[in-house]
Design brief:
This protein has 13 helices and twelve strands. With 331 residues, the chain is of the alpha/beta class. β5, α7 and β6 form a beta-alpha-beta unit. α2 runs parallel beside α3 and α9 crosses α11.
Amino acid sequence: MKHSNISIFIPHMGCPHLCSFCNQRNISGEKNIPMGEDVRKICLSAMNEITEKINTEIAFFGGSFTAIDRTYMIELLSVANEFVGEGKFKGIRISTRPDYIDDEILSILKKYGVTSIELGAQSMSDKVLEANERGHSAEDVRKASLLIKKYGFELGLQMMVGLYQSTESDDYFTMCEIIALKPDTVRIYPVVVLENTKLGELYRNGEYKLYDFDKAVEICANMLYMFEFVGIKVIRLGLHASNDVSENAIAGFYHDSFREICESRIFRMRVMSSLNERKGDFIIDVPKGSLSKAIGQKKSNVEYFRENGLNISFKENSELHGYCISIKEVN
């Protein structure tokens, strides 16, 4: 059954830091702050509209939830908790910073029906965290993750690819460190450079260099494959489409179909690895629902294969799953 969220966005008011890549204060400031009654109206509307409530969470996103004023945080949670339980929604999901997690906070979250906690790790390299003014360490991520799991919450970790002073090795190191923490879910955000940020300034003066788009796709595709291979669900790959991002982005890897592009790259890599420099005509079976991904956007994979001496046709096979393929040579 597909998971869904009732998203309630909390402005940047809770976060004590302004990271190199973040312009939330410029975008939202402290306007449109949802109060308890706003949460009630949103949840009441969702109760009438959503039929599959058992796998739906009320999600507080957009800020560092556990860093906001405690009274305000409890106000939001207490109202949301009215809509959690039998015949209602599954629970409450929050996102926050790893350095704003402790036993007291987790006890409060447990009391009010929070089921899932996502931490903005972004990198597991202290060098990269410091360069991007995150204000926490990799060890903070490790300690918070273990504590969250100890309390029985679902753990989600968020990481970024291509940050300032992060190398390809640093990005893969972050992936490996996150795998070691065994979260339930991961979000992968390739960098988007926004106006009115330190990263934007560094990009414009030439101090910050981005990966080219193809390299970003390769790295994110490898990460998607590895996370899913070890049983960690990737619930987001690439930033959500929004007016704020499209209007403020000056560079980076922002594409409405970024995940599908990465999934197409996985199938390309799987085919090339399996054929191991063989040439000729082949029929390749892919899992049901994966035909367009295997073919690639605007038939990009088919064209790539042709340029490499391969004439490939794809067909769906309901017995295959994930990124599995089955190859038959045409004589």
